[in-house]
Amino acid sequence: MNLKTDDYRVKVGKTVRLKNWKTDEKGGLDKKEGKAWAKVLADELAGWQERLYAENKQALLIVLQARDAGGKDGTVKHVIGAFNPNGVRIANFKVPSEEELAHDFLWRIHAQTPKTGMIAVFNRSHYEDVLVTRVHAMIEEDTVRRRLDHIRNFESLLTDCGTRVLKFYLHVSQDEQQERLQDRLDNPDKLWKFNTGDLEERALWDEYTEAYEDALTTSTAAAPWYVIPADHKWFRNLLISQVILDTLKDMNPQFPATDLNPDEIKIK
């Protein structure tokens, strides 16, 4: 089984209209077979991560963006959880500190990019600075356009230096978001996750749609965006796992050569 991941990739130079992308797609699979296949991919992901870590010449940056309750944390748990923690770093970018605001908007981002051999996951990212700031009119439209250009150049710099970049927009419907937010209210074990501010952001659905559509135009050959149908969590996890696995295979990291001859070594 191999999903046609290119169907979910944002083509370079194309205008994006999120209404044309499905949120509830399941790739022709049912939940049982999808979850079973995800376990197979998890084992493969672990093997390829070990190669990346051992080779220590390349790096992988994974960007996760979504609306509230879109599934970023679930993706980290169920997809990134396949990796050895020693080779992974998770960064979550919240409201900038006073120190961070005193620098350019990418300053705090660059410090969290992965070194060779590592995988970094941005649970929210530099794109917040053209999403939240734009929707809440904290920056002007011309600033948005300049920042999008800066982001393209920033990601180009990373790829030129050996870091592959994968960007995932977890595409959830309004109805599914409502259901997930309600579940947080109804479930005592999830109530801690509920934030009344999420309702204020939900009221700005159309404004966020427009902001995301512009952000997705930063998809390039080297740093592509994927629009991931996210209403079904199991399919979201499966599809993202497949994209990451395909990318690691394309990077083709190799275990380093050694002069050791195991036959000449005796452990006493």
UniProtKB/TrEMBL annotation:
SUPFAM superfamilies the record matches: P-loop containing nucleoside triphosphate hydrolases
Q: Could you name the domain of life of the organism this protein comes from? A: Bacteria
Provide a Gene Ontology MF annotation, just one.
polyphosphate kinase activity
* Keywords recorded for this protein, A-Z: Kinase, Transferase
Its GO biological process annotations read: polyphosphate metabolic process
Question: Where does the record place the Polyphosphate kinase-2-related domain?
Answer: 29-255
The protein depicted here goes by the name PPK2 family polyphosphate:nucleotide phosphotransferase
